[in-house]
Amino acid sequence: MLSQSISPATIIPKPTRRSGAYALIDSLKLHGVDHIFGYPGGAILPIYDELYRWEAEGKIQHILVRHEQAAAHAADAYARATGKVGVCFGTSGPGATNLVTGIATAHMDSIPMVVITGQVGRAFIGSDAFQETDIFGITLPIVKHSYVVREPRDMGRIVAEAFHIASSGRPGPVLIDIPKDVGLEEFDYTPVLPGSVKLVGYRPTVKGNSRMINQALNLIRVARQPLLYVGGGAIAANAHQEILQLAEIFQLPVTTTLMGKGVFNEHHPLALGMLGMHGTAYANFAVSECDLLIAVGARFDDRVTGKLDQFANRAQVIHIDIDPAEVGKNRTPEVPIVGDVKQVLLALLRRYAELDIPAEPNQTKQWLAKIDQWRQDYPLVVPHYPDVLSPQEVIVEVARQAPHAYYTTDVGQHQMWAAQFLKNGPRQWISSAGLGTMGFGLPAAMGAKVALPGEEVICIAGDASIQMNIQELGTLAQYGINVKTVIINNRWLGMVRQWQEAFYEERYSSSDTEPGMPDFVKLADAYGVKGIQISKREDLEGAIATMLATKGPVILDVLVSREENCYPMVAPGKSNADMIGLQEPASQKIVATVTCTNCGTTNPQDHKFCGECGTKLAN
Q1: Residue of 68, 326, 397, 564 with catalytic role
Q2: In this predicted model, what pLDDT tens digit does every residue of 42-73 receive, in sequence order?
Q3: In three state form, how does the secondary structure of 91-108 look?
Q4: Distance between CA atoms of residues 157 and 153, nearest Å
């Protein structure tokens, strides 16, 4: 991934007497920062005092969150939606520690973020002063790099280095801890321009090895049952077009991880959707029977692989990743390629063009036909019950009315249903994957909307997850941030309940959230936000239309079936081909069907909406 920077100017600015706080804000602005998410406190007040002047002049906007965790999640989603570096502020002590979950979330998902924390004065460090914590030490395992600014003259260089590190190579969060007196102290400030820093020993490999690229091309050309397995690294590298070209030239079916959703057009005939624990049956069958697995920007996570020694165990593996530590970590590839995903794929495509060998369109024909049969036999199912809404039909209807929205999610069953049924474009799927952070969705939607005010942003939440950061309704109200939130409300810790049902003999320990459940409409109203609640199918279409048409933030609370489980599901320790919750193959049933006029998918006649694209069916 290219560093977020501009070319350094040839004229070196003259030093000016400035404070450390000024140097920080000026350096952030030089690096293209327009928005900061944060929460003030004693140790960071000198920085906020300087920020006050910059905001008054309209040079930068600070978004006051109601909890520091939300600041980190908002900055994280800002980065996911735009590819820019997200920035958040927190004060010392509890302010800094409240950021930790958000930093860990960004670290696990490789998101470029610069985190600024206040610290007690230099003379008090190590004395257990009021609101002192060693945030540098606390966050060491969950940051890409970190700094404590000991001298204000180092501020410009540190900020420039932080942005370069956060956005280059494998992206990640960088922490800058600033003692209070460093912000106050004046010095002769010379701006350090983006792109002007050089870090000794830090040179991420960008270009792939040409010999390995040739070997990869040779394997792709002869494979009969290949599969492209694409992760978040391809999104970070902006490799959407290269993935599409590679897939179409060689007719490669494409499956994505939870982090990779949106990197490949999910309406494309070659798209198999997500694989793994709650992936599509046809993606999981494909990875179990492929003879070549082309892993692109993916890390063979346990939620993807299931039982590792049975994951793609018939296949040779090509693994392309920017991080050499990931290549061969969980699965030893036959062809390892370390490099920027986009650059490696461009080199592979160029090499193919140089050879001037025509593609063989029929090479994967039988394989694609087999996958299409799995699609027909094991489609994603949208249940329709007589007296209650299913979670899936809610998500399908939201997707039908807002097909081009940016979607954020919380974590749980609703997250997996959203991953199954939403069809997203590049960077339009924003979800906590590696850490699985409840409470991520609402502040993430806030960050995405601030970044892209002209886009529709919708948060798919659970009734339990939404309460983790529901105080951010106050932030939405204060700034008029037009985020729509759909609560899939089953009055349970839904995924916990599902696991208790499947693996703990239905001992539902501390997972029923109905006692003490708030009235979300009244709660929204208390914050000055519009709230809507529905429970009937006949109200669903109109309620979603009203939500989308309303100016300003809206909470739509949808009461759904309490017992619905998320299928298919790969049980822990099982092979991906060994899924539970699959229905009898459609090809073995004698049922009336109806063909979707939009995408051509065959659906059971009793389905109201197409299970593939969500279009209302003409029964």
Answers
A1: 68
A2: 999 999 999 999 999 999 999 999 999 999 99
A3: CCCHHHHCCHHHHHHHHH
A4: 8
In the structure encoding, which two tokens stand for residue 552, read together? Answer: 């300003």
Q: Of the CATH numbers 3.40.1670.10, 3.90.950.20, 3.40.50.2000, 3.40.50.1220, which one belongs to the domain with range 210-377? A: 3.40.50.1220
> Does the model's pTM come out above 0.85?
yes
Report which of 334, 291, 340 is spatially closest to residue 110, judged by C-alpha positions. 340
Would you say domain 391-566 falls under CATH 3.40.50.970? yes
Which segments within 509-553 are labelled E, that is strand? 530-534
Q: Find how far residue 345's CA is from the centre of its chain.
A: 22
Task: Judge whether 130 counts as a catalytic residue.
Answer: yes
Fold agreement (210-377, 391-566): yes
495 is a catalytic site residue: yes
180-206 confidence digits (pLDDT tens): 999 999 999 999 999 899 899 999 999
Instruction: Calculate mean pLDDT across residues 490-504.
Output: 96
Closest by Cα among 167, 196, 203, 155 to 50: 155
CATH 3.40.50.970 is right for the domain spanning 16-189 = yes
* β-bridge partners, 560: 389
DSSP β-bridge partners for residue 61: 35
- Look up 589 and say whether it is catalytic: no
Could you give the angle at which helices 365-377 and 281-289 cross, rounded to 10 degrees? 140
Which of 84, 144, 161, 180 is catalytic? The answer is 180
